[in-house]
Amino acid sequence: MPVAKRKLSRDGAAAHEILDPHDTIERRAQRRRLHEPLSPPSLPPSRDIISALSDELVLRIFSFLDIKGLVDISPVSRRFCALAADSQLWRKDSDKEAVDWKRLYKLRHNWARGQCAVQEVQVSDHGGPQHPDGQTLLRVADGFAVTADLRYGVRAWDLRTGTMLARAGIDKTDDDGVGVGVGVSRPTAIALDVQGLAARRRMDVALGFEDGTFGLWRVDVARGTIEPAYRQGKGSHAAGPLVSVAYSHPYVMTGSGPGFISIFTFAGTGDSKAAAAAAAAEGAARQPQDREKALLPEPQLLRQLKSYYSRMPLALSITRAARCVTASAAYTFSAVGGWAIGVQDFCIRPARDRGRGGDNATNIINDNGNGNGNADDHDDDDDNDVVITSRVAYTSPMEAPRARRPAPECGRGCVCVCGYEGGGEGESESEKEGPTRLAYSHPYLLATMPDNTLVMHLVTGSADGGGGVSISRGMRLWGHTSAIADADVTPRGKAVSISLKGGELRVWELGGHAGRPRPSVEVRPRRGGPEDEGPGSGAGLGLGLGLGLGFWERSASSTPMPVDLADRTSWVGFDREMIVVLRVGLSGRENMVVYDFS
C-alpha cells in the first residue's frame, strides 16, 4: 500500500493538523507556542520619568490611592515616604470637619473686592423722633445678631434668613413676652459672650442700663429661646449710666459716664460667705419672680475704680490667655497741649499664681474698691480668691485740629472738600478735641477722629500679665470723605468703618505688609448680590490711603443701591461673612442693613 505523502505548508512546516486525526486543540496550541520565537524581555526606560515630576503631580497621583496603597508605596524612596505622609492626603480620613476651600476662597475674594449682597431687616418703628444716641443696641456674632431696646426687649436674629429667632422682655413683660417698658431703665450698652456658640449653639448677652445696673440673658440658638440669667438690683453698685460693658463668663466689666469702672465675677460665688451675704442684701431689691427665673447667683465685686480726669469715649474688652484673663479699658484724657489715649489692663489670675505677675504700674484710674488700694489684694483663706495686677500705658499728647470755616465755592460751581466740620456754638473747646469713638480688640486700638480719619495704635504686652504694656505711635488712615459714624476692629486686624450719612462703608486690613495697613476697600453693594454681576459691574472698589479720595469702578448697566441721605448710621459691626449696619430714619424707624460677602 503506497504511503501518503506529507503535505507541506507555505513555510515548509508539516501540516500535522490535517494528517493527524488524533490531534487536539490543546496539542496544537502547545506546539504553536514551542515553534513561535520568544519576545524580547521588557527593558527599563532609558530615563527616570518619576523624578522629573513635581511634588504637586505626585501628590495628585497619590490622591487616587487607598490607605493600603499609600502604606505600600512609602518605603520606595525617601521622597515617596515624605509625600505619602502629607496631611492633605489623609485629610479625608480625619475626624475633623471638612473645610470648604472653594467657599473660603470666594469669601476672601469678595472681601478683597468689596462684592456683597445686601438686604434690609426692619428692627423697630418707634413712630416718633429718635433718641440722639439711638434707641436700639446691636451686636453681631457668627451669622447671628442680638438687639435690645426698651420697647421690644432682647431679640435674637438669624442674619442669613433675616428672621427673628426669639425675644424676651427686659423686665416686666406682657402676654407675648415683649417688654412693655413700665418702670424699666433704658438699655445703654450691650456685649456678647460667644464662648459656647460653636459647641453648644448658645451665647450670653450682657446689657448695661441707664440707672447704672446690668443684666445677663442666655440665648439658645438651637431651641430658639432667650432666658434671663441675672438682673442686678438698683442702687447696689450704681455709679451713673453705663456707657460700655464687656462680658466673658464669669467676668463682667462695666463703665459709666462719670468715670467709674467695675469688675464682677460669677466664679465660685455660691460657696463664699461674703457672696451669700451680698446675695441676701442685693436680692431684696429684686422681685420674687425675677429671683426664681435667674440662672446665676449674685456676683462678687472684684474692683471698682474711679477716674478723675478721663472722659468719653470709653471702650472695654476682656481677653483670655492661658494663665490669666485680661480686662482692659481704653479711654481718652486731656493732656498738656492736647489730648491722649490711655489703656489700662487688669490681669486676673488665681491666688496661687500671684508670684508670676509683674510690677504694678501707676494707675491712671485709681482704686476705689473695698481694699486698701493695692492691686494685689487677696485673702489666703478663700480658695476662690484671685489676684489682680494692673498695668497702664498711654500715648503722647496730640494736638487737636482746629475747626475750619466752610470752603467757598470755586468758579466752577463746586465746593471744595474740607474734611472737618466744626462743632456747634454751644460746644466747648475740650469737647471738640480727641476721638469721637474708640474700638479696642487686642492688639488693635482704633480711634475715630472728627476730621474724617482713623488713627490706629498697636498695644503690646505679655499675655500672662507680667511686665508692662505699651502703645505704638498712631498711624492715620485716610479714605473717608465725610464724617465717620462708627468703626469696629477684630484681633486679626480687619476693621470696618462707615460714614454718618450716605452709607460710605470701608473695609481695612490693618495687618498689612511690614506693619503698614493696606489700602481700604469701599463697599458698594448691588441688589441681587455679586453672583448676578460681571467683573466690571461688581461692587465698587474704592481705594484710599493718604489722599482721602478713591477711584470707582462702574458699569453702564448697573446702578448703586439707593441710599436715603436723610438716614443716619448709628452703629456698625461685622463677623467673618457679614457686615451689619444699624440705620436710623428721620421718623425713628430703624433697619439692620446686612452686607453678605458669602
UniProtKB/TrEMBL annotation:
InterPro entries given in the database record: F-box-like_dom_sf, F-box_dom, Quinoprotein_ADH-like_sf
Residue spans of biased composition, Low complexity class: 359-369
Pfam families (alphabetical): Beta-prop_pof12 (PF25499), F-box-like (PF12937)
Region (Disordered): 357-384, 511-539
Biased amino acid composition, Basic and acidic residues: 519-530
Protein name: F-box/WD repeat-containing protein 7
Organism lineage: Eukaryota, Fungi, Dikarya, Ascomycota, Pezizomycotina
Domain F-box: 47-93
Top-level taxon: Eukaryota
